């Protein structure tokens, strides 16, 4: 079901550095109870059906929080934006309603929508050692580009926003070390 008014859409992966839709405004935001992990397979963007890449999803973790970007989408364009995002996130992702806390603002939390690839979806790869994930990312590519580009663009965007994500940065360091 698509909301009817202006709606916040939360990005924690490629939507941070490549939203590819129009929006009224963007704000750094945080959600609670979730951890960002490179545990989702990408058979359609950063990998191929027989050689999937790894992209991020969110894993429930009541002690964690995840920071990203919230985009306010105008009601007039919402249907078109969700059609675009439903197609873009078709490889196992589903819409979830969430509560957003805006960073560096004394503002009440807002409701929003995000896309998560749940652990029971067909493309879920799950946890692996950092070395195994790094090797997979280093060697994967698909129609949207290399898996390495996805990882390094996400890491750069998080650094630019002054967001520390140990999982992302450790994985990036390992992939880059393998390439040396």
Could you characterize what this model shows?
Helices cover 31% and strands 36% of the residues. It has 180 residues and is α+β, with helices and mostly antiparallel strands. The longest helix has 14 residues, at 75-88. The termini are far apart.
Parts with pLDDT < 50 across at least 5 consecutive residues: none
The best one-word shape is globular
* Secondary structure: number of strands: 7
DSSP strand content? 35-45%
Reported by name, the CATH topology is: Hypothetical upf0131 protein ytfp
CATH architecture label name: Roll
Radius of gyration computed on alpha carbons: 16 Å
By CATH, the superfamily comes out as Gamma-glutamyl cyclotransferase-like
pLDDT averaged over residues: 95
Question: Residue share in helices?
Answer: 25-40%
Largest sheet: 5 strands, mixed, barrel
SSE pattern = EHEEHEEHEEHH
Number of discrete domains: 1
N- to C-terminal separation?
Answer: 47 Å
The tally of helices reads 5
What structural category characterises the helix and strand content?
A: alpha+beta
CATH class: Alpha Beta
* Spatial strand sequence of the major β-sheet: 1-3-2-4-5
Blueprint (SSEs and pairs):
Blueprint: E1 7-11, H1 14-17, E2 25-42, E3 53-73, H2 75-88, E4 94-102, E5 110-116, H3 130-139, E6 141-142, E7 145-146, H4 147-160, H5 166-178
Parallel strand pairs: 1-5
Antiparallel strand pairs: 1-3, 2-3, 2-4, 4-5, 6-7
Précis, in short:
With 180 residues, this protein is an alpha+beta fold. Helix content is 31%, strand content 36%. The longest helix has 14 residues, at 75-88.
